[in-house]
From TrEMBL, chain A:
Superkingdom assignment: Bacteria
Keyword Transmembrane helix on entry: yes
Domain named Sodium symporter small subunit: residues: 9-84
Keywords: Membrane, Transmembrane, Transmembrane helix
NCBIfam families, alphabetized: Na_symport_sm
Organism the protein comes from: Chromohalobacter moromii
This protein's name: DUF4212 domain-containing protein
Length: 86, 593
């Protein structure tokens, strides 16, 4: 029982860590690269404009898709590792 | 075949498919009606979420907004997609594990409070109903433009079709029609975009075309567009935005609002397993991304096309933009599509300097040295996608496709919203509060009756939109962001937040958001009752009323936390419920009890 409980707690901790990491990337591409850091990235040219504009109109969406699939794949592995899969 | 006949053919064929699916997917139980039996494949569900999510606003209005605002309106692109990351990581898998039918039901059980459940029902109905008005009105516009019936008749036709598959099939009928509607709308959206991208840049993929060379001028497309719009007094298309705080908060409001909208969350209850809920969020964003990566390309290319239609001398390599600006087309020689749209009132022309030419520019810049006495052409943003095939001279079947696509986008979202409303009424209000002893058959009948009433109300409001129609989408997102998302997230990630905290949090987040919106937009949107003019100088810290939902969410989190801290812990069984939601093992199907 105690083992099962600490196993579940470790699973949840690993999940929260993974979520935190993914959300840092999520915020970094959208609020960071596309908005707040755009002036810093303005020297990097992309097709007639700058990298910040690319992140605002394409880069962040592509990153979001990648993040969700990465999270789903990682969580499937965690589910199995901790014996909590359905 | 005439354009009218082609439009009828495309729209009629798509409607016949939806009705066929409705007959095939009739709901036999409440489980069919609320969660499509719980056995939907994650890719199928992803596609259905795509159609559920992409409304008339995404299909018709978004590219127009981006075309008009350029970089500044990238907020819509990031906001309406970034919310899916929050859904996939913070809500969908756990709510699926919880395994009930509706969003208020989770809030009621987790916070062991019927009051909390009822507050959630009210938030859900207000957010969904305001949202559905826009869909019905959008369907009305598409009908009146393409099928030459008046908007009210068009609306009633649309309502009958929605009625047929949603009342008969519930979530089951809606799921499979949404899959068909997704296919119709994505084809309709991308085909004209591919043609236009080829024409302007030679690149068949619009998202790549956006960052390619503009064939006629040999410059990058976006630099060319910047030069053209700057020559006419507009802000450069890719210009920086000064008010970054507001841009961040607006994007955040859209993201949190997206994640908190019940009609989207409900779709995750239809998959068999927790892992499937995660995968279907990813697939949903792939399908949504196809349109959202095409939209900014459509926006910039259509804007350039529009400008060079009025100022043909700006189309190629330009030595002197002043000279090119001096030679617009004459009103007499305007292209056919301008004539068609003038009839709808969405394009208007007023020859202010009586020279017979069209001067189309930003008249907050003074161009009297060019002999201009004001902007003469007003183009409604919403026509951009609908008129796109005509602007680019595409064959007439593409126009028929656009008509069917616009209707698919409006109807699929309307059906999802109506289901959220009707299940909140039949499951949360009737079964949960008024008549808990209701039989399965009785509840199914109640669900169908409340769906029918919701359709009638939505159709009426769509035909007679309240004066605040333009504000309602912002309101829906504000409410979802400030009331529903925070309590859902805290219900999963905190064992400490209790009933008092959740109720106080929802009410304070909601009140804060509504009051801030009403101060600038008028109390209950009644014109003239606003306390302050809705201009950036009056906004607190430069935060627009449209961006306030994110701050409302923070208020909700803070109040819920503080109130919970100062009152007792939730009972043991609730803490166990939170535990069980966190682990995928032992999910089982969605059950009612």
């Amino acid at each position: 029982m105690a083992d099962e409980k600490s196993n579940a707690e470790a699973y949840w901790k690993a999940n929260v860590r993974l979520i935190t990491g993914c959300l840092i990337v999520w915020a970094l591409v959208s609020y960071g690269c596309a908005i707040l850091l755009r002036p810093l990235l303005s020297s990097i040219p992309v097709g007639g404009t700058d990298l910040g504009f690319w992140f605002a109109q394409q880069g962040s969406i592509l990153t979001f898709i990648g993040l969700i699939f990465f999270y789903a794949w990682k969580m499937n592995r965690l589910d199995k590792q901790y014996g909590l899969e359905e | 075949m005439s354009q009218f006949a082609i439009n009828i053919l495309f729209v009629g064929a798509s409607f016949a498919i939806y009705i066929g699916i409705a007959i095939w997917a009739k709901a036999g139980s409440t489980k069919d009606f609320y969660v499509a039996g719980g056995g939907v494949h994650p890719i199928t569900n992803g596609m259905a979420i795509g159609a559920d999510w992409m409304s008339a606003a995404s299909f018709i209005s978004m590219a127009g907004l981006i075309a008009a605002g350029g970089y500044a309106n990238s907020t819509f692109l990031m906001g309406w997609t970034g919310g899916y990351v929050l859904l996939a990581l913070l809500l969908a898998p756990y709510l699926r594990k919880f395994g009930k039918f509706t969003v208020p039901e989770f809030i009621g059980d987790r916070f062991y409070s019927r009051t909390a459940r009822m507050v959630a029902v009210v938030c859900l109905i207000v957010a969904s109903l305001t949202y559905v008005i826009g869909q019905m009105a959008g369907a009305g516009v598409a009908f009146s433009r393409f099928l030459e019936v008046d908007a009210t008749t068009g609306l009633i036709i649309a309502a009958v079709v929605v009625f047929f598959y949603s009342v008969l099939g519930g979530m089951k009928g809606i799921t499979y029609t949404q899959v068909a509607q997704y296919i119709v709308l994505i084809i309709a959206y991308t085909i004209p975009a591919v043609f236009i991208s080829l024409e302007l840049t030679g690149n068949p993929l619009p998202p790549l075309g956006l960052f390619s060379e503009h064939s006629a001028s040999g410059e990058p497309l976006l630099s060319k567009l910047n030069e053209v719009v700057s020559a006419l007094g507009f802000d450069a298309y890719t210009a920086m935005v000064d008010n970054k705080l507001n841009m961040v908060l607006f994007t955040l409001s859209l993201m949190i609002g997206t994640a908190g909208l019940p009609h989207v969350i409900m779709r995750f209850f239809t998959v068999p397993k927790v892992a499937d809920a995660r995968w279907s969020a990813g697939w949903a964003l792939v399908f949504i991304g196809l349109l959202y990566l095409t939209a900014p390309a459509v926006a910039s290319m259509a804007r350039l096309n529009l400008m060079t239609t009025i100022y043909p001398d700006m189309a190629g390599q330009v030595e002197n933009y002043d000279a090119a600006a001096a030679n617009p087309i004459a009103y007499e020689n305007r292209p056919e599509w301008i004539r068609t749209w003038e009839e709808t009132g969405l394009i208007t022309f007023d020859d202010k300097n009586s020279d017979g030419d069209i001067q189309f520019y930003n008249d907050s810049t003074d161009f009297s040295d060019r002999g201009w006495s004001g902007n003469e052409l007003t183009v409604n943003n919403d026509i951009l996608v609908l008129a796109n095939p005509e602007i680019a001279n595409l064959p007439s079947w593409v126009i028929g496709l656009i008509a069917a696509g616009g209707l698919a986008a409006a109807l699929s979202t309307a059906a999802g919203l109506l289901l959220a409303i009707s299940s909140a009424i039949s499951h949360d209000l009737i079964k949960g509060a008024i008549n808990p002893g209701i039989t399965e058959r009785g509840e199914l009948r109640a669900a169908r009756i409340s769906m029918s009433i919701a359709i009638v109300v939505a159709t009426y409001l769509g035909a007679n939109p309240p004066g605040f129609a333009a504000q309602v989408v912002a309101l829906a997102f504000g409410i979802a962001a400030a009331s529903l998302f925070p309590v859902l997230m805290m219900g999963i990630f905190s064992k400490r937040v209790n009933n008092k905290g959740a109720i106080a949090g929802m009410l304070s987040g909601l009140t804060f958001t509504l009051v801030y919106i009403f101060i600038y937009k008028g109390w209950f949107f009644i014109p003239g009752t606003n306390n302050l003019a809705d201009t950036p100088e009056n906004w607190v810290l430069g935060i627009s009323p449209l961006s306030i939902g994110a701050v409302g969410a923070i208020v909700n989190f803070a109040v819920a936390y503080l109130v919970s801290k100062s009152s007792e812990e939730p009972p043991r069984e609730i803490q166990e419920l939170v535990e069980s939601v966190r682990y995928p093992k032992g999910a089982g199907g969605a059950v009612s009890h």
